[in-house]
Amino acid sequence: MKAVVVSKAGDSSVLEVTQVAKPQVKSGWSLVKIMGFGINRSEIFTRQGLSPSVTFPRILGIECVGVIEETTDPSRLPVGQKIISIMGEMGRDFDGSYAEYVLLPNEQIYPISTQLDWATLATIPETYYTAFGAYKNLKIGSDDVVLVRGGASGVGTAFVKLLKAKFPEVKVYASVRTAAKKEQLLSVGYDDLIIDDNGILKTDLKFTKILELVGPATIKNSIAHLEENGIVCSCGQLGKKWYLEDFDPIMELQNNIYLTTFYSGNVSQEKIQEMLTYIEQEQVDVRPECVFDLDNIQAAHDYLESDAAFGKVIVLDKEENFSDK
């Protein structure tokens, strides 16, 4: 089969498209024919050698959509079944989805029922699952005023699409470091932008709900912009700070603020199916920003690392690829 093998850490040139043996099914694992997958920044970090648990050579890829090719659980995962796989150690402890086929532990394979096309499905897994979990935990209502801290991120843009599909009247603001992508951000559903100047929001506005994607680096400033009884959901760490320091919960949350999170490792078939049903019923505008095929994986990584990147970058099986780039 065709696969992308990384033999050493480095820039996108280490992503080598080559022929390798198709994985052999083993007890408790099934073989998936990959129809598409998203490119994630964590895979770029791994490619750069920044994932200490990962050894090379390795086939990257932490998510995929596809169909069961060979199974060891025919009742739950029959041959031909549409599936999504996210989380687990795919692409880290064992070879991942940058290939035509991937061998996965059965507990990491989630059968789905959907009429969504493969390009849409490939756009969804990690990004939309996180955004949907945060959307639910923020308990959005029609009278909310919402801020997405880190609004230009993939999860941020997915979140605003999920929200606006059900509550088009809700005002949603994106915090950004620069207004360079204003038109793109407004086009996905944001009502306006707020400049984030080194962790300080340049506004006096208050919000009822805040999706915090920058994380511990800005969470105190976000809380300062919450109305009483507001909710902040912190489920990103774009600020590259992993822990809250000097945080007195009684004083920081004294205005009856609710602090929550969503961890995408909290995953189940039921939760994934709930998300897909919501996307179909609410006609959420899920679409990839840029589509590549496996032969152009280096270009896909280069695009995601560039200043031009916006939205979700995916790789599709050539037969399904409607927009090779």
TrEMBL record:
Keywords: NADP, Oxidoreductase. Residues 10-315 form the Enoyl reductase (ER) domain. InterPro entries: ADH-like_N, ER, GroES-like_sf, NAD(P)-bd_dom_sf. Coiled coil: none annotated. The keyword RNA-binding does not apply. Pfam families: ADH_N, ADH_zinc_N_2. One of its GO terms (molecular function) is oxidoreductase activity, acting on NAD(P)H. It comes from the Bacteria. This is NADPH:quinone reductase. It comes from Streptococcus gallolyticus.
